[in-house]
Amino acid sequence: MASVHESLYFNPMMTNGVVQANIFGIKDWVTPYKIAVLALLYEMATTKPMALLDRRRLNKLILPLQQGSDLTFEQFLKTVEECCPLMVDAVKRRLFLMADRELQDMEHFFAILPSAFSDSEAFKTSVVGLFMRQMLLAYNKLSFSQVYKLYRSLQQYSQRGGRALSQDQRQRDHSAVTTEDMELTSNEDTSADPMEKDELDTGPLSDETRGPLSQKQAEYFLARQAYLLKNDENKAMKPAKLQDELNNILKFNPDFAEAHYLSYLNSMRVQDIYISTHSLLHYFDRLILSGGEGKSSGDEGYGRSLRYAVLNLATLHCRFGHYQQADLALQEAIRIAQEANDHVCLQHCLVHYSQTKSGSDSVVLTEDSVKMAAHFCLPYLASLGIQSLVQQGALHGMSANKLLDALRGTDIMHWKQSLSELIDISLAQTASIWRMYGKSTMARQQAQLLLNMNSLEPVNFGVQQNNTEPFAIALCHLAELHAEQGLYGAVSDIIKHLKQQFPPHTQHAKLWMLSDLKIQFEKAMNDGRYHLAEPYVTAISALNTTEGLYRKAQLLKALNQTSEASKILQRVQNLSEKSKNTEMIIRVMLATAELHWDSSGFATALPLLLQALALARQHNLQSLESETILHLAFTQLMLGIPEQALALVQDVLECVLAHGSVLDKARALLVSKFQVPSNLSYSKLYLAVQTLGESAVYFSHLNCKLRLREVYYLQARLHHSLGNIQERNKSALLFRLLNQELPPATNMAVPQL
Q1: Alpha carbons 336 and 385: distance in angstroms, whole number
Q2: Fewer CB atoms < 10 Å away: N or C end of the chain?
């Protein structure tokens, strides 16, 4: 009679109860799905005339079928059919031959199975041969009742595959099951195997009543999902489904440490701090228990696990912004690492500790960590520290040549060490630096370089490219840069690709969500459809509070709600100063200056604009510097000093036309309205008309109807001065059509920049 442990190991038809035994004590057991795989192997060995391409496809399919989770009969047949349609019929005939007849037919199949491979050396040494010998060994250890239940499971398995037994057969099976139940109940000792009756009563397998995975299946499943989460999250299971699978594994083996760690990674995808903390602690608890024989202060054993457990907990708190808890955990990890003299762990602690600090303290700590990592030959940590220093240097206004020199030095080390993850981060960081400094052409080049670079990672599980955070950042840069040029068709294609590669449930989806919302908001504002822009403000605020408030202030300003916009801009400035977001501080100053234009006068805007210009130059933000100079030039024009305004615009015109957005180019070309005075010559007036025409083309790319109306008004004035009656009437007509469509302007003689 089979023991309790034998039943647990070898019987796949288990009830959905609590199992106290460790089911991973045995490597594998027989299931109906594995019988189907054995039938496929048998037919492949006995079917000689087979196309070479079909055999090659089937050979590539065998290993995933052996190591993967059990498939339904429909899924199994569909998978085989994709490789070799002719083989599907042979496998179905073999399985239906066993399922529709007697138990001895299944016994006969296992008896003749080794004969098909007896003359093959692969049966003794290959993975396929090992799998078959394990299945034969597991089958031979089954008791008679377990063999019968396996046979009934095979019948149910084939029935769910689309072939229902006849009514007589089903009645015959039902009577046989009833008779067998009575015999087993009356003759067997129920105390010796309490699972028997429940197992006999188990119906068709479903997601709720599926049995445990074998050790190999569980290990393969965890390794595959962990790899996909790291390199291509889109192809991994969705968070809810993956958590159900992990709960099923942990239900049968709560001490499986790797399953707890994958649960931690899965919870981080959805920012669930409770489950992620719970899973991380359980992972290290199980890891420490499994390595309890080691010395607590040595390199091995639970001492090392404990050090890294506290370090990972600090990283978790740091990721969620809980810097105080992270600091406490890091101090504990440092203390334990110092007691054990673990220099590697101390270096990891120093890198993370520098991230919890701010200002000069963070820079000094990061520099120390880079030096120590280089001393202990830890290239990954050293490179990561340099990239962190580059990021901090960019935020503090360090010149671009110094930052790029530092990155170039690390790139050489990345390629030597084949650190593909850091190569991706370096390229994405370089694209971000170029864009922040206002060099959009170079930013596009670096983003394209990253997207067209082949991955250095081994291509497993059908992953063709690492769909990680750097790739999402590069694509978001391209989307926003195309939107700045008015290429909304290309933007739509990029966002569509981002949605496919990073679905909403993935952890990096918020990157493209924020970019898409900002693009749609700017488009609605340019179109003058403010009622459509308001929902985008709410959505942006949910992803980024500072960005959302800034967009809300822009919307209120467009709606002439000056006082409310001023209050919100003050809040944004306080938040930006607290987070040291220099770019947002400058943008707030420019927006506040525009409010002064509409309320207190142009002279009051000059101090703010000069302060913004000094800040932009201090931090080498060329794009914002050009935008600030355009605001200064417009202010000087309105104050009656057009010569100085013209000189300012000419200084930045080349940079704006080379790297600026379409909106900035159109603004810069409005230099023609500085030349409107009547004492100008005919040639200069004609040149001003041409420049206004170029500006109108740029505004039409963005569909900026408000600014187009102003351009048509100025064109009509200039054509009237030149005596071009026909062109004047044409411009006046275009102005009138837009003026009827848009809300009335307060003062067309004083256009907005």
Answers
A1: 23
A2: N
Task: Centre a 10 Å sphere on the Cβ of residue 560 and count the other Cβ atoms it contains.
Answer: 10
Which stretch of DSSP H or E encloses residue 336? helix 323-340
- C-alpha 315/C-alpha 318 separation (Å) is 5
- Separation of alpha carbons 166 and 328, rounded Å: 69
Could you count the other beta carbons within 10 Å of the beta carbon of residue 36? 25
Show the tokens assigned to 336.
């334990």
Residues 6+ apart with CB under 8 A from 641: none
Q: Residue 213: CA atoms inside 13 Å, Cβ hemisphere, count?
A: 24
State percent of the chain over pLDDT 90: 23
d(CA 583, CA 654): 22
- Count the helices and strands in the chain (H runs, E runs): 37, 0
User: Comparing C-alpha atoms, which of 433, 40, 503 is closest to residue 241?
Assistant: 503
Three-class SS of 428-461: HHHHHHHHHCCCHHHHHHHHHHHHCCCCCCCCCC
Both structure tokens of 673 = 């309205």
Indicate if the pLDDT at residue 20 is higher than 60: no
Task: Determine the 3-state secondary structure of 68 from DSSP.
Answer: coil
Rounded (10°) CA dihedral 138, 144, 149, 154: 60
pLDDT by residue (tens digit) across 696-727? 888 888 888 888 888 888 889 888 888 888 98
Helix (H) or strand (E) holding 8: helix 4-10
Rounded Cα gap, residues 174 and 179, in angstroms: 9
Give me the phi and psi of 70, to 5 degrees please: -65, 135
Per-residue pLDDT, averaged over 54-59, amounts to 82
Q: In 21-67, which residue ranges form alpha helices assigned H by DSSP?
A: 32-46, 52-67
